[in-house]
Specification:
The complex is a heterodimer of chains A (534) and B (60). Chain A is α+β, with helices and mostly antiparallel strands. Helix content of chain A is 26%, strand content 25%. Chain A has a domain at 419-534: Glutaredoxin. In chain A, helix 1 (41-52) runs parallel beside helix 8. Chain B is mostly helical. The chains are: A alpha+beta (534), B mainly alpha (60).
Chain lengths: 534, 60
């Protein structure tokens, strides 16, 4: 929502383009390998992942422009690696604000300052703040430069049916309706997913009572990019407030509503203004500010039981809704998009068996359930649901004023990449490795390598990292990277002279061996592509 | 702990509960529980004590 007199896209700092529906109509009903419904960050990332692996796609977006507000603003390090892999990271690095530090306050006193894991072995910072419109704009710029992707604006998918070897979409735009067949369809159509409803699926999980207003203000506030959490502040007794810096002097203020505050009242402009003014006074900011945009959300953990329905895959918010604490909504959606993207591309180009697609739902739904476990803990701390949770939360915060050992409870459980240890396409971990190195299924950690980083040397498809110069495995789509034992990567990977790691196109470890043999690598490679053991 | 020690703790608690604001009893006891649990450093024992403390309470 925006202040009276300004339209939904009348922003203080962002110029919204206006996109027309397709004018050239002759090809609209041509079959597409992949149709993607929804051109938000998740749909666009899926299209760019497919294109990176050589697969064309058609994106449908019912709106005529980007998202109306800043919404998801925190992009985690693993997502920056995804953006790099799809060739879109450069404008993000120029614009986004990287950060490593957070501070928590209880009744105005600082009880905790935390640093997120960062080191010289990391190419990207643990977190970046950037408004969602910029995220969408930068992805769109990459799409415009990519001939394999066609984005159809103001085009609403109104029906979907199974047909032999694919699905048939019914599409409506200003110029009429048409049908388009596709071999596979990705539903990236958001939390209210029309495709989910058309197919009769429902999200399951928990609804939390706590509601938050999220408001953006523009102001010349002199404070570094440090996430601030205010518990029980003067401006909101008993409530919680979060403050984030964004580019262009935009500040995100999230504040929790009291139980007796109705959604309708809380989102009235005069009430938002009064609430924001009280927060700013608590932050000791007394300068000018302008209200840019606001919205409301509640902290739910909801997911589909299965992210796959035949040739239709649900990615992002259409598959799962998570509380914002820990910033996993956008980041998990991006990981969904890359996961299904490389798998579909490998199947559609005949490099992998269709069985590979069966691994999407277990891997990504597993990640969601892991998020739920962490996000539920964060949500219970930020928004205690009952008397018991509230008493213990308040007791812990109060105790943290004098004793450090409880302060960590106020730490946000930030997004870390999920380990696909139980995936059907990940090999059993080699137990002969010592503690501390990444297990099979985990995201490959980064390390300094030459002038750059280990991640700079990974192939487009699979990469075999081998510390044994004699190990050779000839496979199409497999790049072998021979590393010396004196490299930082050897330390990070717990390597011995015969160690090898097989890394997937999404940077996760498909298998690893302390003492690798070529036939083992071959077997793990086939397993990772959904082929039965040979 | 000798009976005298237990009595000293019992009296100190009574005095402190009387000294703080009446509506702060619950947070005070919850903070105390966290502190003592931290000192005890034995999660299984603390969990047992949590269950034992709930025995024989009046039900609403």
């Amino acid at each position: 929502m925006r202040p009276v007199g300004r339209s939904e896209t009348d922003s203080l700092y962002f110029s919204y383009p206006h996109f027309e529906p397709p004018q050239e109509r002759a090809h609209l009903e041509d079959r597409a390998p992949v149709a993607i419904v929804g051109a938000g960050p998740i749909g666009m990332t899926a299209a760019l992942t497919l294109a990176r692996h050589g697969i064309a796609s058609v994106l449908f977006e019912s709106k005529a422009t980007f998202n109306d507000g800043s919404r998801a603003i925190c992009i985690a390090r693993p997502s920056f690696h995804i953006l790099e892999r799809i060739g879109a990271v450069s404008p993000f690095l120029d614009k986004a604000l990287g950060w490593t530090k957070g501070r928590s306050f209880y009744r105005g006193k600082q009880i905790l300052e935390f640093e997120m894991p960062d080191s010289a072995d990391e190419k990207y910072r643990p977190m970046y703040n950037l408004q969602q419109q910029f995220i969408e704009q930068f992805l769109w710029q990459a799409i415009v430069a990519q001939p394999l992707i066609e984005l159809r604006w103001q085009s609403t998918v109104t029906g979907i049916q199974d047909i032999a070897g694919g699905m048939m979409l019914e599409v409506r735009d200003l110029n009429g309706t048409y049908t388009m067949p596709a071999e596979y369809v990705l539903a990236a159509d958001g939390a209210r997913s029309p495709l989910r409803k058309m197919r009769g699926h429902r999200l399951h999980g928990e609804y939390y009572e706590g509601k938050y207003v999220i408001a953006d203000v523009q102001m010349p506030h002199d404070y570094p990019t440090i996430r601030r959490a205010l518990f029980d502040p003067d401006c909101r007794p008993g409530g919680t407030v979060l403050v984030h810096k964004q580019p262009d002097d935009i500040w995100r203020i999230d504040y929790q509503l009291a139980d007796d505050e109705s959604e309708a009242d809380a989102t009235k402009e005069e009430n938002v203004r009064a609430s924001v003014a009280a927060v700013l006074a608590d932050l000791d900011y007394h300068g000018p500010w302008e209200l840019e945009w606001w919205s409301i959300y509640s902290a739910n953990t909801l997911a589909l039981d299965d992210y796959r329905d035949g040739r239709l895959f649900f990615i992002g918010d259409s598959a799962h809704i998570v509380p914002i604490f820990g910033v996993r909504g956008l980041n998990n959606g991006l990981a969904d998009a890359e996961n299904i993207g490389w798998k579909l591309a490998h199947v559609l180009t005949g490099r992998a068996e269709p069985a590979l697609l069966d691994s999407y739902s277990p891997e990504r739904r597993g990640a969601t359930l892991d998020v739920f476990a962490n996000a539920s803990k964060s949500a219970r701390f930020m928004t205690p649901p009952t008397r018991g949770w509230r008493l213990m939360r308040d007791a812990a915060l109060n105790l943290a004023l004098s004793h450090d050992f409880v302060g960590f409870l106020a730490k946000p459980r930030q997004m870390t990449p999920y380990t696909y240890a139980d995936s059907p396409i990940v090999a059993a971990d080699d137990q002969t490795f010592g503690q501390g190195s990444p297990v099979a299924g985990a995201a490959l950690p980064n390390a300094r390598l030459g002038e750059g980083f280990l991640s700079d040397h990974l192939g487009q498809g699979y990469t075999l990292i081998s510390f044994d110069a004699a190990l050779r495995v000839d496979l199409p789509d497999l790049v072998t990277l021979h590393l010396a034992l004196e490299t930082p990567a050897a330390r990070v990977l717990g390597a011995g002279p015969k160690t090898a790691y097989l890394v997937r196109p999404d940077g996760h470890i498909a298998a690893r061996w302390h003492d690798a043999a070529p036939d083992q690598v071959l077997a793990a490679f086939h397993l990772s592509q959904g082929r039965p053991a040979q | 702990m000798t009976p005298q020690d237990v009595e000293a703790v019992y009296e100190a608690l009574a005095r402190k509960i009387d000294a703080i604001a009446p509506d702060q009893t619950e947070p005070f006891l919850a903070k105390l529980a966290l502190l003592l649990a931290y000192d005890c450093a034995d999660v299984a024992r603390v969990q047992r004590r949590i269950d034992e403390a709930a025995l024989n309470l009046d039900h609403p």
